[in-house]
Specification:
By secondary structure, the protein is α/β, with parallel strands linked by helices. Helices cover 59% and strands 13% of the residues. It has a single domain, classed as Rossmann fold. It contains eight helices and five strands.
Length: 175
């Protein structure tokens, strides 16, 4: 049974790589960010506002976690989410856990290209969102997101094309 988790902060290429992997491996793919975005819309909040709201409302993360755990237990899945690897790790679910990294400038440029906007404004939004998420993960789970030790594959995507990243992942999975 194949279970792959892909984690990374906004703009690192997680969605692009998850889509490439699902096409290459013919395994379904689920993006947990869609669930979070849907909840933010239901609450009529921006992602940044909803992230801050979630800091004081653990039921938001609990709901996301339960859904991710159910998905991982079923298997035959590529699950993209900031804590997908940690959820697999904490629940002893055998998975290939991938972490994608990139510097802030590259991430902001990618997000502007994808969603529009101003690079400085996007950089500020990214920083605010990351700080909020880092606080939540530390407070709720005692997870230090800078701890990469649980990941099987860690790739800095700043200077790599999606195809190069995909190949690195496939090569690492063969070992």
């Amino acid at each position: 049974m194949t279970v792959i988790t892909i984690s990374g902060i906004p703009g690192t290429g997680t969605t692009t790589i998850a889509n490439l992997l699902t096409t290459k491996m013919h395994i379904p793919y689920i993006y947990t960010g869609d669930i979070f975005r849907t909840l933010a819309k239901q609450y009529k909040m921006s992602l940044e506002e909803f992230s801050t709201y979630a800091e004081n409302h653990p039921e938001v993360d609990n709901e996301l976690d339960e859904q991710q755990l159910e998905i991982l237990i079923k298997g035959e899945i590529i699950l993209e989410g900031r804590l997908a690897g940690w959820i697999a790790h904490h629940n002893n679910i055998p998975a290939t856990k991938i972490m994608l990294l990139a510097n802030l400038k590259v991430r902001a440029q990618r997000i502007v290209k994808r969603e529009g906007g101003d690079i400085k404004k996007r950089s500020d939004e990214i920083r605010i969102r990351e700080q909020s998420e880092n606080r939540r993960y530390k407070n709720y789970y005692n997870i230090d997101v800078s701890d990469l030790s649980i990941y099987d594959i860690v790739i800095d995507t700043s200077e790599l094309s999606p195809e190069m990243i995909l190949q690195k992942i496939l090569d690492s999975m063969k070992k």
